[in-house]
Amino acid sequence: MRIVVCVKHVPDMQSERRFEGGRLVRGEDDVLNELDENAIEAAVQLKESEEEAGREAEVVALTMGPEDAEDSLMRALQMGADRAYIVSDEFLEGSDVITTASVLSVAIAKIAQECGPVDLVLTGMASLDAMTSMLPGALAAKAHMPLLGLALPCSVEETCRYVQQPETLHRTEAQAAALARLQSLQALYAAWPDAEHIARKEDCTVNGNVLDYTVTYTVAADICG
User: How many angstroms separate the CA atoms of 6 and 121, rounded?
Assistant: First the structure.
């Protein structure tokens, strides 16, 4: 059984925190997110129960962050993780939940490719720097894995493997248009996070089983800041 635990390097809750340039200052008194310690402990307990049952198991700690996030991975290893990986790139600085989930899902797939199938992914309930609690759901969606939230205590009675089966999704025209509209808004706010949406002009046409969606947004945004 291979368990990946996603952890985060965050400012110490007891330290003095501040913003500079609209972002939380990091790298001064950062530590392993306390709620992620719970996930590490749960993973180690599952590993021990698997080993007691005569089955092999390992715990892999994974984080995305600056190079000093290695300190949090060292803490995870001290707590019982068998190996640890960090994804670090200056272009990922300030990433939102969706980007973070996308990067972590690719990293998990890479771990599965190099080390063997990943049977379980654990996260803390939230990170204490943002407290959105959105990453677990976003990561499950990006990794195409089922989600079980707030699952403590954890136990495994029988090891089984979830396999994603390819399938064709059938949507009504209204559902397809709603999905296209959502994706276009996500792209808009990813490019212009401070933009004020004023008006939208959209055109939907159906060609066979394909929905062609074109949209033009009128927004107010500060392009000089």
Answer: 7
Output DSSP code: residue 165: P
**Angle of the 70-78 helix axis to the 34-52 helix axis, nearest 10:** 40
pLDDT digits 0-9 by tens, 96-147: 889 999 999 999 999 999 999 999 999 988 887 777 888 889 999 999 888 8
What gap in Å lies between CA 84 and CA 76, rounded to an integer?
8
Alpha helices in the chain (DSSP H): 34-52, 70-78, 97-115, 135-143, 173-191
* CA distance between the termini of the chain: 50
HSE, CB side, 13 Å, CA atoms: give it for residue 89: 8
Q: Do residues 2 and 118 lie in contact, with contact meaning Cβ atoms separated by under 8 Å?
A: yes
Nearest to 61 by CA among 35, 43, 49: 43
For the stretch 25-40, pLDDT in tens is 555 668 898 888 999 9
In sequence order, which ranges of 135-224 are alpha helices (DSSP H)? 135-143, 173-191
Backbone angles phi, psi at 117, to 5 degrees: -55, 140
Q: Any residues with CB less than 8 A from the CB of 199 and at least 6 apart, and which?
A: 217, 218
**How far is residue 4's CA from residue 108's CA, in Å, rounded to a whole number?**
8
What pairs with residue 32 in β-bridges?
9
Query: Measuring CA to CA, which residue among 102, 107, 101, 8 is closest to residue 63?
Result: 8
* Count of CB atoms situated within 10 Å of the CB of 179: 14
Q: Are 7 and 36 in contact (CB under 8 A)?
A: yes
